[in-house]
Each structure stands twice: as structure tokens, then as C-alpha cells.
């Protein structure tokens, strides 16, 4: 830019008291400089003008009628000095006059102002640098440094430093304020002395938020020890907006309000949760707990109800069976007495047969005469055998009926008496032979009846043992369920206390962050939002006693598990509950699994009992003693269950002392009442009425060893065990029936052997010998007999040796001697 010409004009834009040149650039010349420049020009011009007028111009101008040359530069100089208006023409770098409508493009290496002062831009002027001002330094072309000693470093592209001594050392940083400093890229320091201390962070965790986060940079409004408050901040509405103290206080108030209705741990050990209902608290919506040896799930009321129903049914069945067993035992005792009498009668008849055999030996002379009669008698015996066989079939048909069996025994006894009379009427040898045959048949019939009775007794005793074992298993299951119910609550209460402790620490962090207000303001609001979400998602809370699902703002008799869906919720990490008469502890799946293991053991015991019955019928007496022992055990278990019920009631009555949560810690020596928040290994449910029990509902199926089981799982396990046990018992009884059938057929074969031996003839001559053979058949079984007999010289003594073998491959021998008097 240059100044082209100087001329006085009525519309000049500069005056001596103001800058001479005032173009759009704002550049100006001091009036003294103008007068100096013009003064140096005026004198030479005036000298030239005088010479020209005197030598050339004056005659010429006079001839032409024109005035002499007079530039009057001195007057112009005086006018400038006196402050008259002065106009200058400004040329651009190309020599063109700059007008008011042209663009103002000014180039210079720098500008220095004479008077030192603070930098000011305004009122159409820039002031304050001065000749001795401290230089600002911008290290990159796109950087800005504005203020005394303001600086941006080399490499800090896009950096802005505004304010005295402000500095930016990293790209895209902004420092605004006296001494403000930014040492991290893409970060901002606002206010005098503010500094950045963190910058962009990758993969960091934020209190109260899940996952990791990345930040682009930092905004600081202070420095360590010189923090500032951000005031007049509007409440945030989006997840990344800053939150105000009012919003945070609202969240804190909401958390504080939860103290009256939330379920919390008693203390920092997370071992006990005490419910605060004045009369106990019902925990509803508990899903069915898992039933296995490691389950700590709580079981719900439906599970326990089903078990109680089964226990009651079994108790009724035990009572009814006990009466029936007692009656059977009496009947068996009576029949045993009658059988004993019959056995005595048979022994007496056997003596008579022996006597008759001796008499037959003495009837040598009459044998020939009676041979025909014997042959006829043999036919009659055959007929009698057929009749007796038919009668035996009728007796077999009525074996299961004790009364009919009694009638048959009476008839048989009458038949024996009648046959004895008929034998007496006939010749002695015929009568004796017929009596012996009748006696054998009666013995066989009685033996069959006694075997049938033994089979029935064995079956009845096995049934009673099975029922007793099942009753014991069911009672143990109920106790285990009670333990799981209490233990399952412990894990959930521990989680709730941890959540509340975390909320408290997060609130404290939020308060500190609000005081420090830096780049974490945005994260605080997000954390508060998550806090409110977590508070709303407390998994266990009081609900209406009527429907068991509607949330209640005050303690009630019912608490419910709240899941993501409407279905039941799994309660895991439940400690093993106390097993006592007064315990109201939740039992877990591992406890119920142990019961199922006991059921399996009972099945093994049933198998052993069945084997014992099969191998030795004499074990009936031992089983009867075992039944009495089992009955005693059942009575003891029933008493234990009653004691457990009392203990549960006692624990529930103590729950009235809690006012914060439904599940609370208690002490081992006083498990019914909350211990005031001291962490222990005991937990109790506290409802509105301390004397009423508290239900735990909506317990989900247990999936791990320490989960609580629900009633459905427990019942399914019991049903499966019972089904397996019943199937196994049926199989064993089928085997018993098969084995007894073998015994029955073997007894028939033995009877056939007895008949064969009884059919052997013997020597009837003095000093004689005889080899004899015979065959016997009874109810489908056959036996063969061979015998040797010899008589003394006088015929008064007879010796016999007999052997037999039946179709089962069993052999037998007998020998005897008789002497006549």
C-alpha cells in the first residue's frame, strides 16, 4: 500500500487530531508525520515557483491574460498544522486507488503499537500490544496464540491459546484464560490457571456402568487444589448430558426411600438377610428349586404342600396297614397253633401206624386170605387218592382265605376221624394202610396250607417294610425341603446387601465427582441413570398379601422374587438350612439330593430284604422285629418333624424385629429373630406377623449344587425314586413267586416219594427177606422207591431199609425195625 497524492478537499476524511489515513485496514499516520513530509516538499516547490514566475511564466501569463503560478503550498501546510481537513489517496500494491467499496487486503510482517496496555479489540480498534509487549507464539499455520506470552507448540496443529501465558502443547487443544494450560490432545482448559490432567482414555471402566468406554479428550475448569463449581446448569435430559445436584439428590432420595421397602443384607458378610414384617414376611413368586446334592435353591410352598400331602397319605396308609398287619399277625398266630395241634395229631397217628405195621407182620397166617381184600383195598385207595387229589384242588383254591382254610382243616380233621373209624371196622392191616395213606395226604395238604400261609406272611411283611422305608424317606424329604427353603434365602440376601453397598459407594463417588466436575460429569449422569435402573431391579421385595404379585411400599406378610419375565425366578447360592423342629430355614437342592440318595439306599435295603425273604422263610421273625424297629423310627421321625415345625415357628416369630428387608441375618442360639444386621451363618424370613410363617414363592428350578429346589423338582425326584423302587420290588416279588413255585413243586415231588415208600410191601414170613419196588405220583410229580425187608426166625422182629428218588432228582432213604410182643 502506498500514499499517492496529497490535496486539500472539502470532503477530506482525516484531520490532524486523528489519524490521517483511516482505510478499512485501520492503518493511520500521525499528523506530525504528514506536516514533516509536506513541509519538506513545500519549500522546494515554492522556490521553483518563484523562479518560473520571474523568468518565463510571468510575461507569458500576462500576455495570455492569466495569473502567475501560485501553488500556495505554505497555506496548505499551515492548514494541516492548524487541523484543517486533509485528504489522502491510498494505493494498493498494484498502484490502484483504494476506494471505500474495495476489499481491504493488508499485508505486513507485523504490527507494533507504541503505548503498552492490555490487548483490547472493540470500538473499531485494536489496542494494547505496545513496543515492549510480551510476544505470543503460534507454532503451526492453523494454530492461534492470542495474549501476552500465549503459545502453541510446534506440532500442535489446530491448537488455540487465548489469554496471557496460556499454552497448548498438543494438537486440537484449547486453552482459554490467564495461565490456562493444555498438555493433552483434543482437550480443553477453561479459566485462569486451569490445567488438563488426563486427556483421552481408552478402555476405562465407569462406576455404576457395565463394560468399558473410550473418551475423545478432557475438559477442565480448574486445577488440583483450585477446583471450580459449574453453576446455573440446566438438568440433563440425554444419557450424555451433565447432571445437576438436584438430579443427584433426587436419586439419593429415591435410594434412601428404598430403605423402608427393599430387602437388604444384615451386614457386610452377606451371610444373613432378615425380613422386616412385624408378624413375619411371606416371600412369594419363588420358582421351584433344584433338587440335587449340591442345590442351594429355595423350595416353594407348592413343593412343601405336595410333600405334606404325601406324608399325610402315607401316615394314613401306615395306620391302616398297621391295623391290617396286626390282624394278620393274630390270624397267623392262631393258624400256627392249629397247625401245631395237627402236627401232634399226625405224630400220634404215625405211632398208631407203626403199631399197625407190627400187627400186620404178626398176621402172617391171614395174609393169604386177605390178599384179595388188599387188592380190592388197593383199588379203593386209588379211588381215595383221586378223591383226595380233587379235594386238594379245592383246598388250594381256597388257600388265600383264612376262614375257608380253617373250615378245610376242620373237615380234614373230621375226615381223619371218619377214616380212622372205617379202618377200625375193616381188618387191621387194611385199616392201618388206609390210615397211613390218609395221614400222608393230610400231612401233604397241611404242608401246602402252611407253605401258602408262609408265602402270604412273607408278602405282607415285605409290603410293611417297603411302606416303612418309603415313609421314612418322605419324612426325611420334608425336613430337607425345610432346610433348603431357609438356606436358599441366604444367597439372595447376600446379593442384595452387596448391591446396596455398591449403591452407597457409587453415590459417594458421584458426590465427589460433582464437586470436582471435570470430564466425568457426563459419566456421572449415566451412572445415576444406571443406579436408578438397578434400584428398580431389586430381585426381592414386599408384595400385596392378597395376590402375592403387586409391589407394596410398606412391609407385608409376603415377599416375592422379581425376574426379567413373568415366570418363576431361580434362587441360588442358598446355604444349607438348619434341620430342627423349630427351623424355618430354606433347604437347598443338595439337601434334597441327599434325601434322594437315602431313598436309593432304601431301595438297596428293599432288595436285601427281598433276598433274605427268598433265601430263608425263617427271617420272617427277624423282619417282624425290624418292622417294630421301623415303626419306632417312624415315630421318632414324626416327633422330629413336629420339633422342626416348632423351630420354624419360633424363627418366624423373631422376624418381627426387622424393619428394613424381608430376609435378615439371625444368630444360631436365637434363629427366629433378626440379630440387628450382624453377619452370621443363619438367615430368617421376617414378615408382618412375627408369629406367622413366611412363604417363599417363585423359586426357579435349581441348576447348581447350592441352589434351592422347588416342590415340583422334589416331588419329581421322589416319584422317580418310588417308581424305580416299586418296579424293583415287583420284579423281586415275581422272582419270589417263581422261587416259591419251585418250592411247591419240590414239595409235591417229596409227597410222591413218601407215597412211593409207603407203597413198598414187606416180608411177612418168618426168617424171610424181600426186595420191593413202588411208584408214587402226586399233583404232577412222580417218585420211585425200592426197599429191602427181613424178618427174624420167629417172625417177631422185622427190619426195613427203603430208598426213593423223584423227578426233581432228589433222593431219600429211610430205615426202621419193629418188634412184636
TrEMBL record:
Keywords, ordered alphabetically: Cell outer membrane, Membrane, Protein transport, Signal, Transmembrane, Transmembrane beta strand, Transport
GO biological process: protein transport
InterPro entries named among the record's database cross-references: Coiled_stalk_dom, Pilin-like, Serralysin-like_metalloprot_C, YadA_C
Record-annotated Trimeric autotransporter adhesin YadA-like C-terminal membrane anchor domain positions: 769-821
Pfam family of the protein (one): YadA_stalk
Domain Trimeric autotransporter adhesin YadA-like stalk as annotated: residue spans: 229-257, 283-320, 571-613, 697-730
Localization per Swiss-Prot or TrEMBL: Cell outer membrane; Cell surface
GO cellular component, one term: cell outer membrane
Top-rank taxon: Bacteria
Family classification: Belongs to the autotransporter-2 (AT-2) (TC 1.B.40) family.
Name of the featured protein: Trimeric autotransporter adhesin YadA-like C-terminal membrane anchor domain-containing protein
